[in-house]
Design a protein that fits this description.
Elements lengths: L21 H11 L18 H5 L8 E4 L2 E4 L5 H23 L9 E6 L1 H7 E2 L10 H26 L3 E6 L3 H6 L16 H15 L3 E4 L7 H6 L4 E5 L8 H9 L3 E7 L10 H15 L5 H4 L1 E5 L8 H20 L8
Parallel strand pairs: 2-4, 3-5, 5-6, 6-7, 7-8, 8-9
Antiparallel strand pairs: 1-2
Protein name: Methionine synthase
GO molecular function: 5-methyltetrahydropteroyltriglutamate-homocysteine S-methyltransferase activity; zinc ion binding
Pfam families: Meth_synt_2
């Protein structure tokens, strides 16, 4: 592990972005997120560009292809893997160009890259027979190792190209479904069994250790397995604050107690009927820390502000507005401004 850290007290994006133009997206992200820009995903480009398809560009010696129901492991590199690699290369080219134009190359300014996490990937990718990788413990282990190796190579390449340190986000939206055994199978009698938490933890730990860069694990679904993420080796855990329940509070507090920082999803991922101001967006965060019994100063020293999830489903106008709103909230936190005391 390097001495690179994920910045706190800043805003960043979760990952996906609307549209199909990587250069336009890179210019916006670099401009709107000066403290922690990220390499966006553009799923509107189709197969190989979505969260699962992008993994095809990262997996080492485990090609993916398309099936009638999604993505499937295959023996040979085919169209899907070639397309995914080409799209990822274009995205890195675009970010490098925007980074260079912004005068950031060679600085100590971190950049975030995203990938689907190993457990969610295994829950969505099929074996040759149509069953999910999750149903085969050997294949699950191999997929985890392949992904981690590919992400480590991606981190090294991005660091070289950008001349800047890289931090990693692992997206695990299906984590709770994997642990609960609630994923459908090819038949009612062949649904994947629940993956025991110790096995899931060991896989996530091994991936994070192999990546060798600071990792933020993001889960925007409800029922986040707080204890597993706390022990995973992640430097930061991200989640949608609007999904929190009373029973989640202890888990969030234990993350902070364990020196795991938080990426709080405070900004809606799609345009609301009425655009909230920064006070409304900040209030759930201040209320959360109050309920946990932590000082509000942690909002600038232990927290990153993000949209609640990826922005692929938003309009281009709202996507830019969402990043600006996240930055506005972080500035208020840095200034120690209390939303409740504002007129």
């Amino acid at each position: 592990m390097t001495d690179v850290r994920i910045p706190v007290g800043v805003a960043t994006g979760v990952g996906s972005w609307p549209g199909t133009d990587p250069r336009e997206a890179a210019e916006i992200v670099v401009g709107e997120l000066p403290a922690l820009p990220h390499l966006v995903e553009l799923p509107a480009r189709g197969i190989g560009a979505d969260m699962i398809g992008r993994a095809a560009a990262l997996l080492v010696d485990m090609p993916l292809d398309a099936s009638t129901t999604g993505y499937r492991l295959t023996q040979r590199i085919g169209m899907v893997t070639r397309t995914a690699r080409d799209l990822l290369a274009r995205d890195v080219d675009a970010l490098e160009e925007a980074w260079e134009l912004a005068g950031r190359r060679g600085t100590e300014q971190p950049v975030k890259v995203q990938t689907v996490g190993p457990l969610t990937l295994a829950s969505q990718v099929e074996l040759s027979g149509g069953h999910r990788v999750l149903t085969d413990r050997g294949a699950l282990r191999d997929l985890t190792e392949s992904l981690a190796e590919g992400v480590a190579e991606h981190v090294a390449e991005a660091a070289r190209r950008l001349g800047s340190p890289i931090v990693v986000q692992l997206d695990e939206p299906a984590l709770n479904a994997v642990l609960a055994g609630s994923l459908p199978g090819v038949s009612i009698l062949q649904a994947p069994r629940a993956l025991p938490e110790p096995e899931a933890l060991a896989l996530l730990q091994s991936a994070i250790e192999r990546i060798g860069a600071p990792v933020l694990v993001h889960c925007c679904a409800a029922d986040v397995p707080w204890g597993l993420l706390r022990r995973s080796g992640a430097a930061m855990v991200g989640f949608d604050v609007s999904t929190l329940r009373t029973e989640d509070l202890d888990g969030v507090g234990e993350l902070l107690d364990a020196d795991v920082d938080l990426a709080l999803g405070l900004v809606p991922a799609t345009a609301p009927e009425r655009t909230p101001d920064w006070r409304e967006l900040a209030e759930p965060a201040t209320r959360l820390l109050d309920r946990l019994g932590f000082a509000r100063t942690l909002l600038s020293s232990r927290v990153v502000v993000t949209p609640s999830c990826g922005l692929a489903g938003a309009s281009p106008e709202w996507s830019r507005s969402a990043l600006r709103a996240a930055s506005d909230v972080t500035r208020a936190f840095a200034d120690g401004v209390d939303p409740a005391e504002m007129p």
